[in-house]
Specification:
The structure holds two protein chains of two kinds.
Chain A: H1 7-15, H2 21-39, E1 42-45, H3 47-62, E2 73-77, H4 104-111, E3 115-120, H5 154-161, E4 167-171, H6 178-184, E5 187-190, E6 211-215, H7 218-228, E7 258-262, H8 271-286, E8 290-294, H9 302-317, H10 336-347, H11 350-363, H12 368-390, E9 395-399, H13 415-419, H14 426-431, E10 435-443, E11 446-453, H15 459-472
Helix pairs in contact in A: 2-3, 5-6, 7-15, 9-11, 9-12
Chain B: H1 5-14, H2 24-38, H3 74-78, E1 84-85, E2 88-89
Antiparallel strand pairs in B: 1-2
Helix pairs in contact in B: 1-2
Classes of the chains: A alpha/beta, B mainly alpha.
Chain lengths: 485, 96
């Protein structure tokens, strides 16, 4: 059962010559062929390129090369540019776009010898929390195909949970890695802003966007993040600070670790969902950590703050889609204005247009101070709350989402209800902090996520705390029914 | 505050988005509810708080050597363009 092996186990099997990258790749490709029609987790499958990359990885190994990701198959979210492969961002606008270069994340993982199997479905331009805004249709949750997998990295999450690859990549602007990871029972890491290069990652909200990983354990995520992270001169907000050895820190004891329980995250949380978080806290206390309650008074304002800042940045970023240089162009434009308006009106879906217009409104003359400037000030208040909390505790803990996966279609007509799904995840993006979601139990057969948030550049500590929990529990080993077969 | 149809038409024009007759009522309603939702921010006391544009304070724009770092890839890039002639992007006539 190659698909149930961890990245470490696959690596050992490869090093021992018990299997080859070509064999592993064929195995995952046949799973994709069998499982994807029911889940719609993928937009483009790159079988031919994958087999060639696998053969090349086997060649590199035969020549003496090693490396923890050499020959390991992955799936990239379709927001990362992949040279010569369609990069749609889940949009009709880019349905015909063949990326002319690789994103830095793609380059780094390619150089490490990974094998790309496919590009994952996603909410259009990463705008959504349910993967229902994709031009390519909704992704189904492998735990229950009537449920959403979360979003915007919904395809990446469903593919990781269904074991279509050893791991997948994602991006997180307001929770888009952590929320779908929680809803599909996988481990998702959103690193510190600036830790992973944004070059070649199609921009949504540039002061919030960050790339990360979805995997089946913190141990696997540590291996992947070590390759993804690091300075990139091509990203002007990339941080030039060394990448620690995440794997080496995984086993560090948690004795003395101070964990802050976020009071605001429990307001209105259903009792049985809260109970799972309290169970997790017991595990942490048994591992030697101390838990204290902390309050971030401005955190309840994070959703309205985000829904000013993110749409404002998106309205600016998405102005590049003008029907001239790439992307969708309307038929028979009568003049340049008609070309812009109809190309954009046809190329973008309903939610993307809603966000562009929200952003245009809050940036327009007469409203800028009341909305955009105000939101930037509240953003600082929220960030200062986090800073004050981290003066008292090492990590913050709480649920990743208010509820487990909801029904497909349940929230599509009400944007505010949909936006509130990210109520626990948005704060970390506004403050640029790293966050991690890991499975901590099931509610009516659906996974719930435990969220850890740390100070800037504390990925090592987050992965360590997640790994120790996963050593003491088995929630991360649970697979949706039938998908471990 | 609720937005009117005229408000949404103006925003759509500024955003260079064609909104169809069918779509318009949905946007009037949903954009109004979003504006009312984010109005919650006006309750926050932000007197002397400095606006925050970037999550990591103290970052500076880096400089680099003034050297050629890109090669000419215009053919590859223009392969994605809807209309190209002689290496130029083609748009409807702008000057009569």
């Amino acid at each position: 059962m190659l698909h149930n092996l961890s990245i470490g186990e696959l690596g050992r099997a490869l090093r021992a010559g018990k299997t080859s990258s070509v064999e592993i790749t064929r195995h995952f490709l046949s799973r994709i062929e069998r499982l994807n029609p029911a889940l719609n987790a993928l937009i483009t499958v790159t079988a031919e390129q994958a087999l060639a990359a696998a053969a090349a990885a086997d060649g590199r190994r035969a020549a003496g090369e090693q490396g923890p990701l050499l020959g390991i198959p992955l799936i990239h979210k379709d927001i990362f540019c992949t040279d010569g492969v369609r990069t749609s961002c889940g949009s009709r606008m880019l349905d015909n776009f063949i990326a002319p270069y690789d994103a830095t994340v793609v380059t780094r993982l390619k150089e490490a010898g990974t094998v790309m199997l496919a590009k994952a479905n996603m909410d259009e331009f990463a705008m959504g929390s349910s993967n229902e805004t994709s031009f390519y249709g909704p992704v189904k949750n492998p735990w229950d195909t009537r449920k959403v997998p979360g979003g915007s990295s919904g395809g990446s999450a469903a593919a990781a949970a269904a074991r279509m690859a050893a791991f997948t990549t994602g991006t997180d602007t307001g929770g888009s890695i952590r929320q779908p990871a929680a809803l599909t029972g996988v481990t998702g890491v959103k690193p510190t802003y600036g830790r992973v290069s944004r070059y070649g990652m199609i921009a949504f909200a540039s002061s919030l966007d960050q790339a990360g990983v979805l995997a089946r354990s913190a141990e696997d995520a540590a291996i992947v993040l070590a390759v993804m992270a690091g300075f990139d001169p091509k990203d002007s907000t990339s941080i030039d600070t060394p990448v620690p050895d995440y794997s080496a820190a995984l086993e560090e004891p948690l004795a003395g670790l101070k964990i802050g329980l976020l009071r605001e995250f429990f307001d209105g949380l259903e009792a049985r969902n809260a109970a799972l978080i309290h169970d997790a806290l017991k595990v942490y206390r048994s591992l030697g950590a101390q838990t204290v309650e902390v309050s971030l008074p401005h955190l309840p304002l994070s959703v309205p703050t985000y829904y000013v800042v993110a749409p404002a940045e998106c309205s600016s970023n998405l102005s590049r889609f003008d029907g001239v240089r790439f992307g969708h162009r309307c038929e028979n434009p009568k003049d340049l204005l008609d070309l812009y308006k109809r190309s954009r009106g046809e190329g973008f879906g309903a939610e993307v247009k809603r966000r562009i217009m929200t952003g245009t409104y809050v940036l327009s003359a007469g409203y800028f101070d009341a909305y955009y400037l105000k939101a930037q000030k509240v953003r600082r208040l929220i960030t200062d709350d986090f800073r004050a909390a981290f003066a008292q505790v090492d990590l913050l803990i709480g649920p990743t989402t208010p509820t487990p996966a909801f029904d497909i279609g349940a929230k599509v007509d009400d944007p505010i209800t949909m936006y509130l799904n990210d109520i626990y995840t948005i704060g970390a993006n506004l403050a640029g902090l790293p966050g991690l979601s890991l499975p901590c139990g099931l509610v009516e057969g659906l996974p719930m996520g435990l969220q850890l948030i740390g100070p800037h550049f504390s990925e090592s500590r987050l992965l360590n705390a997640a790994h120790r929990y996963q050593t003491a529990t088995e929630w991360h080993m649970q697979a949706p029914r039938g998908y471990d077969q | 505050m609720n937005l009117t149809r005229q408000d949404v038409e103006k925003i759509a024009h500024l955003a260079r988005l064609n909104i169809t007759e069918q779509e318009m009522p949905v946007y009037v309603t949903s954009l109004s509810s979003i504006v009312n939702f984010v109005d919650e921010l006006s309750r926050a006391e932000t007197g002397a708080v400095l606006p925050m544009a970037h999550p990591l304070d103290g970052q500076h724009q880096r400089l680099r050597a003034d050297a050629v770092s890109e090669s000419d890839n215009h053919e590859k890039y223009q392969a994605n363009a809807p209309a190209v002639q002689a290496g130029l992007y083609i748009v409807p006539r702008v000057i009569e």
